[in-house]
Amino acid sequence: MTLLTTWPESGPQTVVRRTADPAEIAAALAPLGVRYEQWPVRADVPADAGGDTVLTAYRTEIDRLNSEEGFSTVDVVALHPGDAPDWPQRARAAREKFLTEHTHDDDDEVRFFVSGAGIFYLHVAGEVHAVYCEKGDLLGVPKGTTHWFDMGTEPSFTAIRFFHEEDGWIGNFTGSGIASRFPGFDDIHAGHVQAQTA
């Protein structure tokens, strides 16, 4: 279940918005220029499926988005426990790379979650919007939007990435420590799971 939580940028003491309704999430993010939509979940695609399998399974959706947006590169990124003996080090390094507030000058950040989950934090117009994405969710963050991403201390996800520029992911870090003032993936995920099972 996807979740959107919005706080003032001053901190998480006050919740401005909290919703798991996909239509409400899309409506709240649209004025920010953020694209949110849900694609069908392919039950025959394993959580740790390889890139070719994932791209083949979602070819119809990928082609539709490409025709609308004109992406030059589409690929698959995955990080799952047990992928390699050095997984703990790789997971820590990957998390630290994205956990600091940044922008992208030349490209949008567009991701579709094939499996697993992650949270995009959007820092826009005096508010922080935490968008908890899981399998079936597509999020498109426009270039220039200040944001960060948290995959948790034990990341497990597969995502399709879309790029307009062939250079791929290039972040411009703001130097702000704002990310440390808001609940991280592990805290939100734990509460999210409890809410689903309650």
Describe this structure in words.
This protein is globular. It has helices at residues 22-29, 51-57, 59-69, 87-98, 185-197; strands at residues 3-8, 17-19, 35-38, 73-79, 102-103, 109-124, 127-134, 137-141, 146-150, 157-163, 172-173. With 198 residues, it is an alpha+beta fold. The mean pLDDT is 91. A hairpin with an 8-residue loop joins strand 1 (3-8) and strand 2. The longest helix has 13 residues, at 185-197. It starts with a strand and ends with a helix. Strands 1, 2, 3, 4, 6, 7, 8, 9 and 10 form a nine-stranded antiparallel β-sheet that branches. It has a two-stranded antiparallel ribbon with strand order 5-11.
Primary descriptors:
single chain; nine-stranded antiparallel beta sheet; 198 residues; alpha+beta; 5 helices
Order of helices and strands: EEHEHHEHEEEEEEEH
Tell me, briefly, the overall form.
globular
Give the overall average pLDDT. 91
Number of strands: 11
- Percentage of β-strand residues: 25-35%
How can the largest sheet be summarized? Answer: 9 strands, antiparallel
Secondary-structure class: alpha+beta
Q: Provide a count of the helices.
A: 5
Low-confidence stretches: none
Distance between the termini: 14 Å
Helix content: 25-40%
Radius of gyration: 16 Å
